[in-house]
Input
Amino acid sequence: MKKLLFILICSAGFLACKKETAAPKTTTPTTTTPTNPNLAANTWIHEVMSYYYLWNSNMPSLASSNTTAKPTDYFYTLLNDYGKTDRFSWIDESYTNLQNQLNGVSTVLGIKNNAFYTDDSKTSIAFVLAYVLKGSPAEKAGLKRGDIILKVDDQTITSTNYTTILSNQTLKLGLGDFSNGAFVSNGRSVSVTKVELQTNPILADTIISWSGKKVGYLAYSQFLTSFDDSLRAIFGRFKSAGVNELVLDFRYNGGGYVVSSDLITNLTVKDAAAKVGKLMNKKVYNGTYTAYLERTSGASAFETLFKSEPNNLGTLNRVFVLTAGNTASASELVINNLKPFMDVILIGENTYGKNVGSFTITDPNKRWDYGLQPITFLTTNAIGESNYGTVNGFTPNYILADNVLPYKTLGNPSETYFSKALSIIGGVAYQASSTETIKKYTRTLASKESFSDNKWLDRKEMWMDPK
Output
């Protein structure tokens, strides 16, 4: 799409000085109308939001808005019922920083945590690692899923500091164990320094033979186009091995690129060859932008059609998706895309509830470096459904919480969520070949959502390039 140029006209008026003839030795001091240094930037923000923002009809007029506000604050004054109807739009002072975030590049230790209360008083908290990013400082320090952090920089983790305690660049992590149902310190600690890291979203993939079936499992944490070919390769291995049941673990996936979400849909959907060229989903824009797209592009601007993917599994009748409060946006889009064509069985907790997406808006004249990420479209599936955009999201068919300790590695068939999927596939509970049994305990989570050591990695996002 050709970028739109916005012409801003800013004016400043000066009041004339008038000499007093009756008193020639005195003059009236020169005065000027105070200028608004934010007027130009805020006028541009209002104009582009009026053109692209999904709820542009609910925006205040430019005249009635506070154009003196700092632009990064002004942006939020334009949003529709911010925090409720619009829980998602955001702005960054740096377009480069915003692009890095969307592409999975952040300064991190590389850990995703679940916060557990350590006792019934619900005061102290333990971090149990949900996963550790490949190649991260945390992985290099020997940390892995299931490891426990009880102190940070010698401070006890509490219900009041747990969301901020991982903010420092270098952190001393006091480690613990989970023994006989209790969190206990083991006296060990590691010091880890954050680095800029490209997220590898492929956390685990494996194939399990169970009850006469070949079960493919993929744990995926973010939809990034730079890993699309890796996804194709995984599905190629699944197809070559004769996988006829599929488990997609999206528990920790807050979304990402729409095209990557569409790719997993194309790789998974039943009878893909017969669907090529047929409708997968549609986008709904505001009236202003819709009129422009209808005039310049026609139906192709709104419709996503199925594409041929040679590594599509082909004959699946159903797919299992593991969900949690972090399962959002592009992850939910996969679920909604597939629902009209096959059984989608959800295991876990309610998803986040985000059926809307965005694209990045920047100033083409480079007067400002702001990156705007407002909600610009809503998605519906091939039969027009889009009823999951509430705080309840999708409700699972089988309810589980990520609160059973000790954690097993992702892809281990005895891991709580994956084991549940296998029990449905096989009709009986999965039985490990080992005779060893480890007692499991249920403990109380302090937050229904997992969180990273860098908050930007926890955004719930579904985004694309503008048409």
